[in-house]
Amino acid sequence: MPPLLEIRDLRTYYPIRRGVLARTVGAVRAVDGVSLAVEAGEAVGLVGESGCGKTTLARTILRLETPHSGEIRLDGVDVATLRGAALKAYRRAVQVVFQDPFASLNPRHTVLDLVTEGMLAHGLATPANRREAAARLLDDVGLSADLLDRYPHAFSGGQRQRIAIARALALGPRLLICDEAVSALDLSVRAQILNLLADLREKHGLAYLFITHDLGVVQHLADRIVVMRRGVVVESGPAEQVMARPAHPYTRELLAAAATPFH
Amino acid sequence: MPPLLEIDDLRVGFATDAGEIRAVDGVSLALQRGEVLGLVGESGCGKSALALAVPRLLPMPPARIEAAAIRLDGVDLATLSDHGRRGLRGRRIGVIFQEPMTALSPLHRIGDQLVEAIRLHRRLPRREARGEALDWLARVGIADPVQRLRAWPHELSGGMQQRVMIAMALVHDPDLIIADEPTTALDVTTQAQVLELMRRLRRGNSGLLLITHDMGVIAVMATRVAVMYAGQIVETAPSRELFARPGHPYTQALLAALPSAATRGRRLQAIPGQVPSPLAWPTGCRFRDRCSRAMPRCAAPPPLYTWGDGHEVRCFLAEMPGGAGDARGASRPPAEAPGSNEPSPAAAAPPG
Ligand SMILES: Nc1ncnc2c1ncn2[C@@H]1O[C@H](COP(=O)(O)OP(=O)(O)OP(=O)(O)O)[C@@H](O)[C@H]1O
Ligand code: SF4
Ligand SMILES: [Mg+2]
Prior knowledge:
The complex is a heterodimer. Chain A has helices at residues 54-61, 84-93, 111-121, 130-140, 157-169, 187-204, 215-221, 239-244, 249-257; strands at 5-18, 23-38, 43-47, 69-74, 77-78, 94-97, 175-179, 207-212, 224-229, 232-238. By secondary structure, chain A is an alpha/beta fold.
């Protein structure tokens, strides 16, 4: 059986433009030949320094960037060939939670709007039953339905992240991409959200692509670890193996730098 | 000998539309020469306000700083003139910020800024100062220092900017270095390099006040730790002692909540609820509504109890022999010296 998500030799370049005519004079090879796979229900941790191409990779998988070359396959089907309903289904299947999702969202939308926006667009809820659907989702992420009519600015970081997760779950995804989703959270709240993500994985059989620079998080939850550096994957393997016997010097450096208080 | 830095009952408030924020609410602490004191706590607990109140780098207003005393080598900074106090900054107190661009000017080349910093407190010919600036760039591990002297700040990566700022803070070989989240904005590997640099370049008998929310950074750097919660210090201890025998339920919970290889396949012990709002700190123990061991008496504010050698805990459990066991359930023998369970003098001022 093909993996849930498979990426083959993916390349995403950003053009560098110069001069008044903005002529393209070169390219930043943000993602430069990445291959990886996520099995159904699996948690893959993608680690690497900022600027190594992690977020570009996520954006390319989400089809927010067009790859220069390479393939993205869901259940073995090349995403580039998808049109119409099949493309819509792909967009539902792969959802994302960013570091601060509310930074880019309309502050005049209530939680109800935010959580059900996608459902309405995809025909998964109607104006008549969306309140009920939203209440169920909030319950899923440990928030009270009383909050449905509030605006995002009234929430703490942890609550916002729960709302963002509810918003992603609304479309019934099979893969959740978490791009530094807990990095901005307070230590005490980070643990709450990590536990929530573990619960949701159990409950919905979700797969995760967990993008982070925090090795502690990856060591805690990943089944497999993929290490990225300067646009390429330098090492990947079962988490236990990568942690116990890192093969690449860069992985060793990362592990050594991730000092924990409990030596 | 007096401690290098002694803060006595510091209060920092910020005037806001919604009312006064009591960001720092009665903090006393001492930093000895040669010591690295790590100040940890979650966002908004008042770490930066505390640290920046010492060199008076807070904007006033909205900030209001009050303290019984802030002493450097026994000299109360309040008795100094503005001029005298300004002279301390840079020369005797070096400050490193989280965001290098708060300290670097985008309008001047790296070299000029370093030369300026050097000449601020020393009458040196420009050329000599330039030579020194060059040495510093090399010392903080910047490749091609001659070239880099002419660089603009934005041409440097975050890690390199941070190195330049460290150089700026250290050019006068200060007695006290205050570093506010110096590596939070950096990648893990760069972070390790910058920490190593700070450790190596610091004169052995200077003192470092290192602010962070990262327990990993504390573990690598600090000789002593102060844990802050809701504007107050809730625990101080030698760093090893803190990790081995955390005394305050908040410290215990924070350590238990850290994801790591050791927590694989298990649920993390999350702390329920949220960090309280500084506009209205909870009455009594400020951790009460999140504490799994709260008791009726916690409705009153607990003082700081001495709980061992150099170990202080702001929790009523510390008063009961063996009461404040660690998170794993082991209990600690009663404090050694009889009477050491009395509230320490530092706690004499009631919080709030
Ligand atoms: N200039 C200011 N005006 C108003 N309020 C402020 C100002 N600076 C800080 N505060 C408030 O004072 C409180 C303490 O802030 P402080 O910056 O000391 O926290 P911190 O512990 O350093 O947090 P972080 O980990 O996020 O840096 C916060 O509630 C903050 O919003
Ligand atoms: S004083 Fe009471 S509420 Fe506060 S930390 Fe100790 S046991 Fe918990
Ligand atoms: Mg701060």
